[in-house]
Amino acid sequence: MYVQLICKVPEGNITSIEDINKFLGKIYNRNVSGYPDRPLPLYTSNDSSIPYWRVVSSRGVLENGRGGTKEMQKEQLTKEGLPVVQRGNQPNSYKVENYKDYFFNFNMLKIVNQ
């Protein structure tokens, strides 16, 4: 479900693992926390890249991870029109400026029980 939810985040938006976990908790009616305990794929079944670069911290900070390095994440988010700025005086530390404006609202998704 993590990958499916990440793929639902449209270009020009971001999410956090906390937001994904909160939405999964709502679906499964239980507390969900942390990262998945198994490796996640890099590509979807139709060979398109999974946009892990859209996953940032809950404060909009870019992190090294499945989306590559912070520099790669910065490049991808900038291509999508997001304002990525240096975070304070810390070298190689970036965040999405006004990040709250760009967080995707998973509650807009329709949940279908099967």
How would you describe this structure to a colleague?
The chain has three helices and four strands; from the N terminus they run αβαβαββ. β1, α2 and β2 (55-56) form a beta-alpha-beta unit. The protein has 114 residues and is an alpha+beta fold. The mean pLDDT is 90. The strands form two sheets. Strands 1-2 form a two-stranded parallel ribbon. Strands 3-4 form a two-stranded antiparallel sheet. The protein has a single domain (2-108), classed as Arc Repressor Mutant, subunit A (Orthogonal Bundle), CATH 1.10.10.
Provide keyphrases for this structure.
single chain; 114 residues; two-stranded antiparallel sheet; 3 helices; 25% helix; 9% strand
The gist of it:
The protein is an alpha+beta fold.
Structural class: alpha+beta
Instruction: Describe the largest sheet.
Output: 2 strands, parallel
**Portion in helices:** 25-40%
| Overall number of domains | 1
Question: How does the SSE layout of this entry go?
Answer:
Elements: H1 2-8, E1 15-16, H2 17-28, E2 55-56, H3 70-79, E3 84-86, E4 94-96
Parallel strand pairs: 1-2
Antiparallel strand pairs: 3-4
